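Q: How would the structure tokens look for this protein?
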Amino acid sequence: MKELSKLMGYRPDIKLVDATLRDGGLVNDFYFTDEFVKKLYQTNIAAGVDYMELGYKASRAMFDEDKFGKWKFCKEDDIRQIVGENDTDLKLAVMADVGRCDYKKDIIDRSESAIDLIRVATYINTIPAAVDVIEDAANKGYEISCNIMAISNTQESDIKVALDVLGQTPVDVFYIVDSNGALFPEQIARIADLFLEFAEKYGKKVGIHAHNNQQMAFANTVEAVGDGVDWLDGTYSGMGRGAGNCAMELLLGFLRNPKYNLYPAIRFVESQMKKLIEEGTVWGYDLQYLITGMMNQHPRTAIQFTKENRKDYSEFYKEVATQI
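A: Here is the predicted structure in token form.
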């Protein structure tokens, strides 16, 4: 049985992280208007959200700047145009994707940056490289999380080794990332227990980033809260790659923290997110994402299915099933 206080009570250690620009940027190649970004920033402040993830620090040698919006790269000048000195309680974050960022050059000292938190994204087989990024970010003065992606495809023994290695670094938060949207609450509970065991050992926090392939993103996040996970990712209207993420407005409505305010989130969804959908931006639960989630596969084939405007779901099911 869960401790009711962990699920229903006010927990000051809870941190809400808005990943709308970063994960949502994977839907529209990061082409958000400055007006949208400014309103999102203001909404997060008004709603009491703790961190706003602005996007990636992607390598400009690897990714063509002409093919992506500015939030793929999060240059300091672009950030400052939105937030100025960010004299607010809202902290700012960017993601450094291991192997896809020039972190030594593009991540400057924290004293010179508006950014507070570096979110290091890694697969289990790139943990040694992730340690280098973590050490670099720590030396520059940042808060740091490490997001272990595709956790549903990772052996428990490998997770233990990874957490033991990461625990000995300056990282602040271990993140459970259900990249494939394949997990259910019972599985999240076991994984959370494992992460929390190592977090307690090394004095770290634990976070969760859930995808909605099987419409489990909110349920899995609530499960994690009940297990003692403190850092929770959400996006407005669940905007994110493929089936999307846990909806921020759901979390704001669920949490019993008096600092959070649902009304600004509702206004933002009404005025901005609905407009994106009306303009043709596509994300969210659909059968193709259900299929890849059930098969515990990366949604790249489902994303391609969506881009091609296919409707032959049963044929797609057969295609995906043959890849198991």
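Residues 287-321 form one domain.

The radius of gyration is 19 Å.

Upvote if useful.
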